[in-house]
Write the structure tokens for this entry.
Amino acid sequence: MTSPFETEREARAAAHALVPPDKGWSILSAAQNRQLLGRACEAAGIEMGRYDDRIIEWLAGWEDATCAVIAGLITRAHEAAAEDTRRLGAIRGVLSRFDWEHDDRQYALETIERIADGGQP
């Protein structure tokens, strides 16, 4: 559930791909929406408090497409943060190995720029 959604139909289809509706139903129940939101929070490593749980319960009462968008936002935010962490680690690796007295500074700066733009070190 990582792609940005362009339509309600796309969001609902993504929700149903992760948590299929009960037989004979075309929408998810509040319990199923709770499962969808809970999975996104768990996958993102979010520590939940009681009030957080209350809000997730409240959100679960909304339509499944709405819950899919919230779950998608959580997932995409987590993935973006993980990618930023990976890039930062790669940049730190370049800096830790670089000898500023003797190594080619331009090469180091180009490598760091490539990493920051999403490329490999």
